[in-house]
Amino acid sequence: MEEFKVVSVNISERKGTVKKPVAGITLTHQGVEGDAHSGPWNRQVSILGMESIRKFEKQAGRKVCPGEFAENITLDGFDYLKIHPLDRFTCGDVEIEITQIGKECHGTSCAIFKEVGDCVMPKEGIFARVLHPGHIKEGDVVEFHPRMYRALVITLSDRASAGEYEDKSGARLQEILQNFFKERGLNLFIHYTLIPDDRHKLEDLVHQAKDELVDFLFTTGGTGIGPRDFTIDIIKPLLNKEIPGIMEMIRMKYGAIKPQALISRSVAGVMGKTLVFTLPGSVKAVNEYMDEILKSLLHLVNMMHGLDMH
Fold first, then answer.
1. pLDDT tens by residue, 17-38
2. To which CATH superfamily is domain 2-145 assigned?
3. pLDDT of residue 60
4. CA distances from 233 to 116, 213, 250 (A)
C-alpha cells in the first residue's frame, strides 16, 4: 500500500481564485466545507502532487505555493500517472473516490493561467468525491487503495467439462481481459469456471455474481438455437438494462461476411452492479466479440458508477 504525506490543505471561497492554506479541512458529503467547489457533483475535492508543482516551477521561473492551482489537498510522493478513476484514498475516517483525472481548462477564469499562461490541473490534477466524511490536516498521511476489478468467466460445454477437449475459448477470453487491464495499469482478478450445459448451475453462478457485486460477467457458449443452447434464456430475464447496440453491431459486422454469425443470440447488459456479456463458444468468436466490447468497456464502467468524464 502506498502512502503520501499531506503537504498542505487549501480553501477558496470563490471559483477561479487561488486557494489559501489552512490548518485543516472538514470533508462532508458535499465536499470541502467552506470551499467554493463543494456541491453535489463529482469534482468535490481536488488533489495535486508536489512533483507537478516543482516541475511547473521550472517552467514558470518562480516558486509556486500549495493552493495556487486551486487544489484542496497537496500531496508529496504522488504520481498522478498511477491513479485511475474509482481508486480510493483514505486518511483516518476520510474516504474519497477518484472520479476524474485532469479537466477542461478554463484559462480565462484561472488565476495562475492568467499570470503564467499555463496550468497543470487540466493534465495532472486529480478529482474525487467524498464517500466518508472527516478531517484532514497538514502532516497527515493519505493511503492509496487502487481498485481491484473482478470478473467471472463461465464456459458452458458438456464435452469440455467432461474432459473430451480443452476449453480454449474461456482461456482466450481470460488472456484478452488480463492484457487489456494490464496495459492500462488496472488491476483485475478473474474467477473462471467450466460447467456442463446445466441450467441450474448457470443460474446459481449468475445469481452469485450479482450478489457478490462482481464487476464483469462473461459467458462463452450456449448462444445459438440448439436444444442445449439456453444461456440467453437464463441470463436475459435477469438483466435490469439491456445494451443492444453492442451485440447488434457485432452481428451485422461479421454477419455481412458470414451469415451464420447472425444466428447468435448474444446479449449485453447490466445486472445490478454487474456488466454482463454472453459470447459464443469459439476462440474466433471470442476474438471478434472482445475486439468490439473492449472499445466501450471502461466507458460503461464509468457510466455504471455515475462518472461524468467531461
1. 889 999 999 999 999 999 999 9
2. PK beta-barrel domain-like (2.40.33.20)
3. 73
4. 61, 22, 20
